[in-house]
């Protein structure tokens, strides 16, 4: 099973914390610009995508998630929406995300998400 995690995150500090924690946990982490997500996913073939719900620019996390889940080649890749937004569960359901990680998150929450999706096999949809 792949241990590569793609992070698409607006906040550089949050992305760096995620990178550090996940790298220390033994995963390969790649930061990806939202505009380059399609090429990166095809090139890196990640086992998990951590996706900020609210990105600056023309693409939102919702749009990116929908495009990945509507593509037969990428729909199997777990996508976790990361946000402090109220209504995150509904947003995740609307764009077919596999899970959510609420900001601010504990390091153990981040580690649990990675372990859940990469080390224990395909988890059932956990968004309620």
TrEMBL record:
<feature type="domain" description="Response regulatory">
    <location>
        <begin position="4"/>
        <end position="118"/>
    </location>
</feature>
<protein>
    <submittedName>
        <fullName>Response regulator</fullName>
    </submittedName>
</protein>
<dbReference type="GO" id="GO:0000160">
    <property type="term" value="P:phosphorelay signal transduction system"/>
</dbReference>
<dbReference type="InterPro" id="IPR011006">
    <property type="entry name" value="CheY-like_superfamily"/>
</dbReference>
<dbReference type="Pfam" id="PF00072">
    <property type="entry name" value="Response_reg"/>
</dbReference>
<dbReference type="InterPro" id="IPR050595">
    <property type="entry name" value="Bact_response_regulator"/>
</dbReference>
<dbReference type="InterPro" id="IPR001789">
    <property type="entry name" value="Sig_transdc_resp-reg_receiver"/>
</dbReference>
<keyword id="KW-0597">Phosphoprotein</keyword>
<feature type="modified residue" description="4-aspartylphosphate">
    <location>
        <position position="52"/>
    </location>
</feature>
């Amino acid at each position: 099973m792949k241990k590569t995690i793609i992070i698409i995150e607006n906040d550089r500090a949050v992305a760096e914390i995620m990178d550090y924690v996940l790298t220390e946990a033994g995963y390969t982490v790649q930061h990806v610009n939202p505009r380059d997500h399609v090429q990166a996913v095809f090139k890196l073939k990640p086992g998990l995508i951590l996706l900020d719900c609210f990105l600056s620019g023309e693409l939102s996390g919702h749009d990116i998630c929908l495009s990945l889940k509507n593509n037969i080649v990428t729909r199997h890749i777990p996508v976790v929406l990361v946000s402090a937004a109220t209504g995150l569960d509904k947003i995740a359901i609307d764009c077919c995300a596999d899970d959510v990680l609420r900001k601010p998150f504990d390091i153990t929450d981040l580690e649990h998400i990675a372990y859940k999706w990469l080390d224990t096999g395909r988890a059932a949809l956990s968004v309620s």
